[in-house]
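May I ask for a sample protein chain and its fold as tokens?
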Amino acid sequence: QLLHLTGNPMQFTMMETNPTETMQRNFTTFKQYWDIRNQDGMKNKMVDTQLSVGDAGLLYYFDYKGRIKSRILSFADGYVLCPHNDQNGDRILESVYYVKDDVEYIDSYDETYMTRWTRNLEYDETETGWQRHEAVVHGFKEIPLITKRGKVAWDGVQNIIESYEILYNVFNAIQRRFGWGLLYVKGKFKQNAEKINGAVVLNDSSIEGKGDAKFLTPPNPEGTIETLQLMLDSIQLGASTTFILPKDLKTGGELAGITVQLVQNQDIQNALQKVIDWQNVADKMTRLFKYGLSVELVNNGENEKAITEFEELDIAACFKVWRPMNDYEYNQMI
């Protein structure tokens, strides 16, 4: 899922129908710095985090040199995201809870300020223990924290995955203990067997004379293997994630990208839906980075009019779904 949604760089379009030379120059500068600051990499990390733990945050900030930077806030790293909306569903506050050096923190971001609350872990239970610190101007024109919540990649097939793991482990345990077969010997034999030319000879001396010796093979595991394969197919269908292994490619010639694309049709359809779900993230990433870059260019003296010029620059951004085929194959198909 991650590859199809983030395999291509973010797509940018300048919305001005008759752009000036200044707009074109600033648009080029924006895309250059986007690559320099690895914003596509941050986009990939954010999507990966959300698909892994259910939510993700991307915080934009100015470093000690006044450069626009960003970092991921993940539950896996101890950050708990607490977004707040108004009655219309519009975001009015983003808060982050975390613990550092035995101190609890809550950082809250509105359109202008970052307000921090702290509390020692060993606080007096008769009081709340929370202390409010002076609000700090974060330097952006909107909340600099982007959050996204959604289902994890395996949400629809969790039960099947658990059943698969149980059956697989039981099957492995049985195979390790009984999967090699055994030599079955029946009858009355002497304690010391005779050896002829290196071979052990067992003579049955029982009255019945029903001695026997044979090699017993374990039951055929095809039924279990077929069940595991059926469950694996169900996981792929339910999660819209196709696993293509080298053993699945049974062609002697070059495998066209369009062939793989047809096999991964569900994966691509799922990614196309996620492009819509992530559009607000793409828009806000673009706005925050564009404004932050303009402030940086003014501060370092590279362009004293950057804030005004970038304000006039209207840029549309969107994810582009990755498909296992090149442009030539796509054009030939059309």
